[in-house]
Amino acid sequence: MRLDEQILERYGVVVDGCELIHHLVHDVMRVESGTQRFALKLYRQGVRSVEDVQWELDLTRHLAALGAPVVHPSCPEPRRLTIDGVERLTALTSWAPGIKPSPSVATYELLGGAAAAIHAAADSFPQQPTPRQGHSAATLIDRPLALMRTELSEIGRYDDVAALARQLGEHLRGGVLDRGICHNDLTLDNVHVEENSMTVFDFDSARVSWRAAEPGGVFAWAQQSDPEYWRAWLTGYRAVRTFDASAEQAVAWFALIGEFDIVAWKLGLTPTAAGRRLSAGGLRDVVDRWLDSAARTT
């Protein structure tokens, strides 16, 4: 059965056009139906269970119902489609209006406001039961370090990174920071902007974590490009929800912690990795940058 016929049968949507627009961890297709647009997400085999995708859809529907700026599930449950002879779990949502925004102070202020609105709405979503394990020092630091052990040992840097990991773990265990459901990949790759309105999509990484970890990527990018982006994110967030001084101070540490999993992914070591994308020389440079960043953050 053709894909458009399966979409009609499983989702009740008459397909006028269908285009693959994203192919990395999972596939995303833009589906045209009359004047409507949808996003059809096709999950990679073995990465997400039915329960996992259902939780993601339930969360997104909850956030949308409370007015958070997110896409709306077009079907309350995942469906299975057969693509090139392979059965795939899929989810259908509304298409986020607008386009991927360019970096700017205005964009990052919108992004901060969107993060705050998602956090506020997520506070009333049941955290248990959930098929997704919440973030902890073990998942954010210990697990990616263990995955990278061989590669780090091959360049003679495992002991340096292990010492850094212990230092980062002390920061996580030593304070009391706000925790709750986070998007956990809230970058400009996962939002569209139309006029002055931002819409967030792709909750594949969503789970319970520290709220101060949410802007880690924004903070890191702002240090490299324009510090005003970070201040704009804080302004946007604080216009909606509290982000206190202790959370702000913790963001620099979370920016560094977040790189552990990113680098493990680039080394092709995580379940969602798509092959190795970082050389041994590149890994040496990354470790040097980590140690320099930690020294400046202390």
Description:
The protein is an alpha+beta fold. It has 2 domains: 3-94, 2-Layer Sandwich (Phosphorylase Kinase, domain 1); 105-297, Aminoglycoside 3'-phosphotransferase, Chain: A, domain 2, CATH 3.90.1200. It is 47% helix and 17% strand. The chain has a 5-stranded antiparallel beta sheet with strand order 1-2-3-5-4, with helices on both faces. A two-stranded antiparallel sheet has the order 6-9. The chain has a two-stranded antiparallel sheet with strand order 7-8. The model has no long low-confidence stretch (mean pLDDT 95).
Blueprint (SSEs and pairs):
Layout: H1 3-11, E1 17-23, E2 27-33, E3 36-42, H2 50-65, E4 79-83, E5 86-94, H3 105-122, H4 137-154, H5 158-174, E6 179-182, E7 191-194, E8 197-200, E9 207-210, H6 216-224, H7 227-238, H8 245-266, H9 280-297
Antiparallel strand pairs: 1-2, 2-3, 3-5, 4-5, 6-9, 7-8
Helix pairs in contact: 3-7, 4-5, 4-8, 6-7, 6-8, 8-9
